[in-house]
Known about the structure:
By secondary structure, the protein is mainly alpha-helical. The protein is 61% helix and 0% strand.
Amino acid sequence: MLRLRLRECFVSHLLASPSTCSISPLRRLLSAAASPPICPKPSSFAVEDYLINTCGLTRPQALKASTKISHLKSPAKPNAVLAFLAGLGLSGADVAAVVAKDPQLLCAKVDKTLAPKVARLAGLGFSRPQIARLVSVTPYCFRSRNFVSKPNVDFLRECGLSACDIANLAMYNRGMLTTNLEHLQAMVTCAEGIGVPRGSGMFRQALHAIAFQNPEKIAAKVNYLKNTFKWSHAEAGIAVSKAPILLRMSKDKLQRTSQFLIPEAGLEPARIAHRPILLTYSLEGRLRPRHYVLKFVKENGLLDRDRSYFSAVDMTENVFVEKFVRPHIEAAPHLAEDYAAACRGEVPTRFILA
């Protein structure tokens, strides 16, 4: 317990004052925190049991992970890593997920590998929760020599991204912080090429959408969008600039959504281009069920004024139910049941007849 508390204190100090941190204070703390070592015999340390009982892995996870750290003969190094992760703020469940994802992190040296990298991130402006999240998502990066390029971070900041933006970007595109600067600059140019300028609110999403995709693949996806939604080149450009994530969506989802929105829901392609967020919603769980409800209440004269489909699908689930389902329970007792069925992928008869 004493050792864990001291390690937590150290991590807090490390994150609070990155510019004054060095490795030697950590060594002194670790030395002070350590009680006279009681080293088990090599044969007494069962890696698989340790992973289950101490790290919280399931037995199948432990069986798989143990093959990668079978050389460990003592819990000393993994104990130090676990204490360090706890000091960063990771919960027991977080630690279990990290170890299952990258068991070899347990073999890392806290003072020579993990602590300096945390200090470097803190010095670049990353907060404690952001660093903890990065560890959770990409633990292997924390034991990699090719970790974070300061020129890349500086360049992304020049593009208008905050430390929070950069951290979120790195969680899903970890290569952004390690690739060479010229490659990163080319990605930024590509993001600008799809109509998203630096400093705009969609710039981070644009970088995520085009990251490590070649220009030919991006152009092919734009052409697919044009053909699928009957857009002009300008309309496709508007849609992509407003929702760059379209470039990452599967062709199957885009095709099915197009087949519903245009012929069935009766939306004009140009209007969809100006509201491309529609295409990111679930077809089965949101777009189709809400269309059915809106059509039903309109055709049965239950609306006191016209409501647009766009506004109906933009609402949260609770707001939609409050506005379009609950007010009509007396006039349409089965509406809530039918809407729930539609959200499960069914098409109630009453909706077909409406």
